[in-house]
Amino acid sequence: MATPPDQAHREPRSETLGVVLMAIAMLIIPSSDAIAKYLSGAHSPAFLSWVRYVAALGFILPVALLQRGRARELEHAPASRGRYWLAQVVRTAFLVAAMTLYFVAIARIPLADALGAYFIAPIAATLLATIALRERLDRRRLLAVALGFVGAILVVRPGAETSTDTLIALASGVCMACYLVLTRATAQGRSPVSTLTIQLVLGILMLMPLAVLQWTTPTREGLLLILLMGLVSTLSNLMTISAFRLAPVATLSPFVYLELIGATALGFVLFGDLPSPMTWAGIAVIVAAGLLVATAPSAAQHTRS
């Protein structure tokens, strides 16, 4: 059967919007990480993760309450409601695990080594999506993911030594891949605001025991930075969840590597670190991977007959 003309035009536009949202989210995420790194001298990673969730919840909760007052959420059948909430718990657990493992890794090994292992996430997410979500994986998108990984390696140039801590960073990337796939699987059930609110509440509850045990009171400057960190986290997560409502995992996964570009630009602006020629080469490869996906025919065009 032929796809209706209005749907045929709408689906490619939706994927393009998803790509744009994902790209912006990945470019602004490093600013939140930079704040966390600055505050890590006075606070533990677990406390910073927890307080970032609390700050983000403070920004998103009023929006969620207003949205709930204006429109009803999509209804779930009683049989599917339990599965939905289980998926949300598991999805948030994977995200918390990814963050925790990554903080453990960068505390023990150079950041470049940790990033090099962590960026297995887009490849793992793309492959998992073909199995769990039965998403179509064409050669063009697979090539884009591979190019993105090569670009990441050129940027971070991780050491050849493989240690237990490097494997911890690798495990962090696998957990992030599971989070991305589950985000795609659950993103259709509720609005992005509602999904993010659920994620933040669950994350706060999961991290609270560690945060209480490692509690440190922020200074006035630290509190302002925490609020800024929460705001950036809120915006980036909203855009990521919205992107996964509009486009498949295979399309969006390569754009995770754009985080490296944001980190490089932030390092130059804040610390005057000029990227080396090898870093610029890696960035060029990452951009090429993103353009390869952005210009690929949409899934709707492949399946239309």
How many individual helices? 13
What string, H for helix and E for strand, traces the elements in order? HHHHHHHHHHHHH
Structural class label: mainly alpha
Topology, number of strands: 0
The helical percent reads over 70%
Q: Write down the overall geometry.
A: globular
Provide the β-strand percentage band.
under 5%
Largest sheet: none
- Average predicted confidence as pLDDT: 76
- Low-confidence region ranges: 1-10, 73-79, 299-305
First-to-last CA distance: 6 Å
CA gyration radius, whole angstroms: 19 Å
In short:
By secondary structure, this protein is an all-alpha fold. Helix content is 80%, strand content 0%. It contains 13 helices and no strands.
Structure, described:
This protein is an all-alpha fold and 305 residues long. The chain is built from 13 helices and no strands. The model is unreliable at 1-10, 73-79 and 299-305 (pLDDT under 50).
Key attributes of the depicted protein:
disordered N terminus; disordered C terminus; mainly alpha
Write the layout of secondary structure elements.
Elements: H1 5-39, H2 45-70, H3 78-108, H4 111-118, H5 121-132, H6 139-156, H7 164-186, H8 192-213, H9 220-246, H10 249-252, H11 258-271, H12 277-294, H13 299-303
Helix pairs in contact: 1-9, 1-11, 2-8, 2-9, 3-4, 3-7, 3-8, 4-7, 5-7, 6-12, 8-9
